[in-house]
Amino acid sequence: MRTKIRKQHRYLFCNITGLIDLTKATICLFAAFSFFCLAACSAHIHRSTINNGKFVPAENKILMFIGQDSDTVADYHKEVPEDKIEGVTLYTSLLSASPEKTLPAIHSPGNWGAGDTDFQKTLTQFPSASLAIGLSMAQCQHDHLFQIAQGHYDESLDVFIDFIQSIAPRPVFLRIGYEFDGPWNCYTPTPYKEAYRHIVKRFRARNIQNVAFVWQSGRTLV
After folding, report:
1. Which residues pair with 92 in a beta bridge?
2. Given its phi and psi angles, is residue 9 left (phi above 0), alpha (psi -120 to 50 degrees) or beta?
3. Residue 53 backbone dihedrals phi, psi, to 5 degrees
4. One digit per residue, pLDDT tens: the chain, 222 residues?
C-alpha cells in the first residue's frame, strides 16, 4: 500500500494503491490531517498567488482528491461513506498517434497492476466530484515528447480534448507529464517543456474552459 499527499495551491491529492480497508482509510485521513496542520502553518505564504489559481477552493478550504484507480476509490467510499468525495484522481497516457492505441481507461477500462481504472464508471459514481487526471508521456522506450511537441499525436490529443470538453462543467486538473522529475519517466527538461506547451496550446485553441493545467513534481510529503 502506498499513500501520497501532494499540495498544489490548496488541493490535496491522496492516492491509495491497493485494496482499501479501514486501516488504510485511517492512514489517508491521518496524512490529510497532518497536511492540514502544515497548510495552516504556511497559509500566509504566497497567498495572493494561491488565490488567483483556477478552481481554487474558498478561503480556508482544501479540496481533497482520492485515487488512484476506480476500484480503490469505490472501496474507499464504501468504507468511509461519510466522505462526500470532492475530487477523484485517475490516470491515462498519450503514447501513440492512433487514439485506439492510447488513452487507456478513457473509453474502456485500463489496469496498471493496482486495480481497474474506468473513467466512465468513476465519474458516473461521483457526478459532482472534480477530476484530477495524471497524463503520462513517459518515454523510456520511445521519444513520445518529441512526437507530441511536433504534433504527430494530435489526433489522439484531440480525442482526449473532446473527452474533457464532454464532461464540462466538471473541473479537471490536468497533471501533464506528472512526476516530471522522477527518473522512472525518463523526461529531460527541454523536450518535456515543449510537449507540455503543445498540449496546453491545443486546449487553448479549442477554448476549453473546464481544465486547469498542473505542473507536478515527484516529491511527496510522506
Report:
1. 135
2. left
3. -70, 155
4. 344 434 344 555 666 554 444 444 544 544 444 344 334 434 443 444 445 688 988 887 888 999 989 999 999 999 999 999 999 999 999 999 999 999 999 999 999 888 999 999 999 999 999 999 999 999 898 999 999 999 999 999 999 999 999 999 999 999 999 999 999 999 999 999 999 999 999 999 999 999 999 998 887 554
Phi then psi for 73, rounded to 5 degrees? -60, -45
Q: Are 76 and 16 in contact (CB under 8 A)?
A: yes
| Domain 2-214: which CATH number of 3.30.70.20, 3.40.50.2300, 3.20.20.80, 3.30.230.10 | 3.20.20.80
Specify burial of residue 64 (Cβ count, 10 A radius: 0-12, 13-18, 19+).
buried
Question: Number of helices (H) and strands (E), helices first, in the chain?
Answer: 7, 9
Residue 194, helix vs strand vs coil: helix
**All cell numbers assigned to 11:** 488541493
Provide the sign of the torsion angle of the four alpha carbons 166, 170, 173, 175, taken in this order: negative
Say if CB 202 and CB 158 are below 8 A apart.
yes
Nearest C-alpha neighbor of 156 from the set 198, 121, 192: 198
* Partners of 3 in the β-ladder: 16
Instruction: Identify each DSSP E strand in 115-184 by its residue range.
Output: 116-117, 130-136, 172-176
Cell of 45: 505564504
